[in-house]
Amino acid sequence: MTNRQPVSAADAPKAIGPYSQAIWSGQELFCSGQTPIDPATGKLIDGDVTAQTHRVFDNLAAVLVAAGLTLDHAIKCNVYLVDMADFAAMNAAYQTRFSAPFPARTTVAVAGLPLNARVEIELIARRA
Length: 128
Ligand SMILES: C=C(N)C(=O)O
Known about the structure:
31% strand; six-stranded mixed sheet; globular; CATH 3.30.1330.40; alpha+beta
């Protein structure tokens, strides 16, 4: 028997590969990386890294809501950028989606992201 309890969010993009949108493990929820896919079309949105970051957070929020949580439950985020020149703009959008104290975070630049997204963010959340 698996200890992986999946979360399925109709308002977030369907997985584009063999992964769950999120998995509960005990009190912690591991949310797969979200790219700026519009769940209505299944396609990447048009827009710069600011718009892409907000779409990513809308998608993460939809997954969290399906699990009975919100972004306030996030404890760790990993941010992937294809161009570190987007760091400041990503931060500006990012900081509007949380209130202090901010979750722990790591940001790295990567060689590429699915569907040619500029940003992907994954997070871990914890219920009380
Ligand atoms: C988009 C993803 N989270 C993936 O391909 O792993």
